[in-house]
Amino acid sequence: MEKLKLTIALSDTPGVRALRDGRVEVAGAELLFMDVHPHVAAYRQMVREQSFDICELAATTYLVAKSFGYPLSAVPVFLQRGFHHGAVVVREDAGICDPRDLHGRKVGVRAYSVTTGVWGRGILMEEYGLDASKVTWVVDDEEHVSELRLPANVEHVEAGNSIAAMMAAGSLDAGFGGDAGIGRSGAPKAGWNVPSSSNASHYAPLLDKADTLAADWWQRTGIYPIHGVLVIKSSLTQAYPWLADALVEAFEEAKRIWLAERTSGAGMSAVDLHFDRLASIVGSDLLPNGIPANRATLEALQRMALAQKLIALQLPLDELFLPVSNAPFAHGA
């Protein structure tokens, strides 16, 4: 039987290397890899145009798209992770020593629904008493889901300006670092991921000892923030109900190979170093898949998105994710 040919867009993360190089195949399907740089641009293409059959999509973007009835479905495969206690940086002359000092201030973030922003704000709200409605969130990019209506305390920069430039000029008191904020300028396009001259390394972290705080939080809550979720056109999952199981099995096998081959030490890439830091907090399974292993995390993300007025209600997880029979990834396991 001829294999089903499927276009797929994934970021270049180590957990999918065995799929990219052909060591792992999806039963009944052939993956045609479509590389988009930076990958965040693929989020917009998938949401607005369903440009690929399968795509790694930002977790919050998927929640928002689902709330608007977009024809997308997800399997419980989570391709990127990270903690966000160190996500927000502040100008040292702003007099900000505590998250509640952000009340009445302006804080930069690339887009209000960017997943790092949702996790970062959520942590500050739930752990440190931040009232996000008392902060003016300044953005310099559009939201992936264009129908999303933002809270009144979200402002867009003036044309030609950026949150990186505003932070450098003192027009912002704080901002998210990296691609989620002041570590880049402009919308996701060619060259977008070139670091800004006003990146986060020039500023002080809002919270000291972020890794220690993250480890304590994870031990207390079991929340291990997700970023990338594997999303499929709904028309495909309806036509080929076996596809969800096949994808979960293939991605889990690719992850197993990566974990078995992982090494620590000199010569590691920035991505590998990132996962090394995560391993010191969460242990050996750096990318746990399935609903049971991620229930607390998925419920927390929905709770935070609701509190930040990105979604109107929380959906049951069996409405957000396709049913799979693979133990231990099945919903009821």
Automatic annotation (TrEMBL):
Family matches, as Pfam families: Phosphonate-bd
Domain of life of the organism encoding this protein: Bacteria
Protein name stated in the entry: 4,5-dihydroxyphthalate decarboxylase
Provenance organism: Novosphingobium mathurense
